[in-house]
Amino acid sequence: MIESVVASSATPLQMWVVLALVAGSLVLYGLERISLELTSMALIATLLLFFEFFPLLDADGDNLMGADTIMSGFANPALLTVLSLLVVGQGMVLTGGVSYIAGLITEHGGKNASIAIFVGLFVVMLMSAFLNNTPVVVIFIPIIQALAERIERSPSALMIPLSYAAILGGMTTLIGSSTNLLVSSSLIELGMPGLEFFEFTAVGGVLAITGFVYVLFIAPRLLPALASMRSKLANPDSSGKQFIAQITVGPASQMIGTRPVAGFFKNLPNITIQMIVRREHAELPPFESDMEIQAGDVLVVAATRKALTEALQKDPGLLHADAAGVSGDNDGTPQKSTQLLAEVMLPPGSRLIGFNLEQIGFRYQYKCLVLGIQRRSRMIRTQMTEIRLEAGDVLLVQGRSEDVEALRTIRDVVLLEWSTRTLPRPFHARRAATIFLGVIALAATGVVPIMVSSFIGAGLMIASGALNLRQASRAIDRKIVLLVAAALALGNALQLTGGAEFVADQLLMVTRGAPAPVILSIFFLIVAGFTNVLSNNACAVLFTPIGIGMAQQLGVEPHVFAIAVVMAANCSFASPVGYQTNLLVMGPGHYRFVDFLKAGTPLIILLWIAFSLFAPWYYEIPF
């Protein structure tokens, strides 16, 4: 643990060099002309070299800013907690747990899409209090886009509100954002108790509800009604092209026993059934109301890739029925390896042209199941296995990750790189949800620290098969690792060289004579401004020691200023680089930088006013 007192041998040179590094890091992180990773590595290397030649010695002659201290950020409990929670969240996404919740909203949203949008954004805010909000926003982008189309509204009016709702939810609990965990870790580094799980939920809840009202009713009016063509080009799942697909109803399918209503099957929304083949008899639409789906029926359907994927997620036994034997399993059980969905095109000269799938033996030869065939704009009313392939046909295929990757080496097909997506693993959804809820319960009740529960949860996600080691490693963001390690090292240097105390003195000098609530309010606004040009994680670590110094000089409980850092560092609304969810919605919303400035600046001011009025009253800080 780093001592909170300034080393007696600290020199003005050391303090000013550290302050210069802080200023330089603010500029470099804000401009992003150099990658965040490279900037962080350069910052750590500079600290190592500087304090090697200009050591900061304590009374015993030991270097307080030695390599072990500077590099300790890589083993910081807060960083390990953040990475563990990313793995736990990835397990929820890959098993379809988050998608299932999103599906309930669209399924029960009724005819009033406006209410469904309200419910959707509110659920995003609630989920972001306990989950990494990045995958939550990724899942809800197509949901909100679909709801916007139902009320004939431009998706660009709702994409920024979606990001803002996720950020607001992250303000309410200790694990709602990595920022919150880093502030708590900084307190521990400074020799103080860390933040408790729900310690700032009251303050965060007031700000989140205040912000949510703005996000729902005001922000959409400030945003332009822009076309979302860019998102359609970038996202294959948003494409409206139809595939001809053939579905075999397996013995465990939820379709068994269902009957059509007005000629349509409610279990297959957005999917047009063109033919039902039962043994040797083919039934064409319109279907009689007394016709009942049976195991073994073959459904020839026309549907988009998105509709087929959703059908697979809701009814795993449906599309996996034909997959038995594809990858070596001959017992008819669903495949439990990592499955990918991808599109391949037949180039001119392919040896597959002129043959149908049965003649080719596609699933046995390439170990991938063809789910659908798309041929320009022509509608084909025949069994998919009887369609003779032509040049330019696009096949929607499903298979194990290694088998789909192997298609790159096959000259007869061209794997469309942008089309590859990992399929949800719904057979692990329940155990993933149990692990996730267990992590939350253990941390919230204080049975074990959040570091312990999250690390165990990440291990159980891998051990249970909800995700493999490769998927878990992909969930870890190297930007977070390097940025947090660099920011913690710089925060320690600020504290030990007296830089934090110096900055706190200057801020207090500027506000000399002002009551403590006013100083707290000004401090909140300063941090909120910096978090839109600097990473919110870096802001959290750099400003926490400064806030603690100010609190100690004012005689205020240090946790109050730490919570101010938590709230303000999460106010990343006025810039697309302020927070990663803002970057996620920038493409689908077709936004410019100024759009975030127009919608985010009033929200920051609103939350600043709400915090300035509520926090001093709640924490009983006298004027």
UniProtKB/TrEMBL annotation:
<feature type="transmembrane region" description="Helical">
    <location>
        <begin position="200"/>
        <end position="223"/>
    </location>
</feature>
<dbReference type="InterPro" id="IPR006037">
    <property type="entry name" value="RCK_C"/>
</dbReference>
<keyword id="KW-0812">Transmembrane</keyword>
<feature type="transmembrane region" description="Helical">
    <location>
        <begin position="13"/>
        <end position="31"/>
    </location>
</feature>
<dbReference type="InterPro" id="IPR036721">
    <property type="entry name" value="RCK_C_sf"/>
</dbReference>
<keyword id="KW-1133">Transmembrane helix</keyword>
<dbReference type="GO" id="GO:0008324">
    <property type="term" value="F:monoatomic cation transmembrane transporter activity"/>
</dbReference>
<feature type="domain" description="RCK C-terminal">
    <location>
        <begin position="232"/>
        <end position="317"/>
    </location>
</feature>
<dbReference type="Pfam" id="PF02080">
    <property type="entry name" value="TrkA_C"/>
</dbReference>
<feature type="transmembrane region" description="Helical">
    <location>
        <begin position="560"/>
        <end position="579"/>
    </location>
</feature>
<feature type="domain" description="RCK C-terminal">
    <location>
        <begin position="329"/>
        <end position="413"/>
    </location>
</feature>
<feature type="transmembrane region" description="Helical">
    <location>
        <begin position="599"/>
        <end position="619"/>
    </location>
</feature>
<feature type="transmembrane region" description="Helical">
    <location>
        <begin position="38"/>
        <end position="57"/>
    </location>
</feature>
<feature type="transmembrane region" description="Helical">
    <location>
        <begin position="518"/>
        <end position="548"/>
    </location>
</feature>
<dbReference type="GO" id="GO:0006813">
    <property type="term" value="P:potassium ion transport"/>
</dbReference>
<protein>
    <submittedName>
        <fullName>Potassium transporter TrkA</fullName>
    </submittedName>
</protein>
<feature type="transmembrane region" description="Helical">
    <location>
        <begin position="480"/>
        <end position="498"/>
    </location>
</feature>
<dbReference type="Pfam" id="PF03600">
    <property type="entry name" value="CitMHS"/>
</dbReference>
<dbReference type="InterPro" id="IPR004680">
    <property type="entry name" value="Cit_transptr-like_dom"/>
</dbReference>
<keyword id="KW-0813">Transport</keyword>
<dbReference type="GO" id="GO:0005886">
    <property type="term" value="C:plasma membrane"/>
</dbReference>
<feature type="transmembrane region" description="Helical">
    <location>
        <begin position="164"/>
        <end position="188"/>
    </location>
</feature>
<feature type="transmembrane region" description="Helical">
    <location>
        <begin position="77"/>
        <end position="103"/>
    </location>
</feature>
<dbReference type="InterPro" id="IPR051679">
    <property type="entry name" value="DASS-Related_Transporters"/>
</dbReference>
<feature type="transmembrane region" description="Helical">
    <location>
        <begin position="115"/>
        <end position="144"/>
    </location>
</feature>
<feature type="transmembrane region" description="Helical">
    <location>
        <begin position="435"/>
        <end position="468"/>
    </location>
</feature>
<keyword id="KW-0677">Repeat</keyword>
<keyword id="KW-0472">Membrane</keyword>
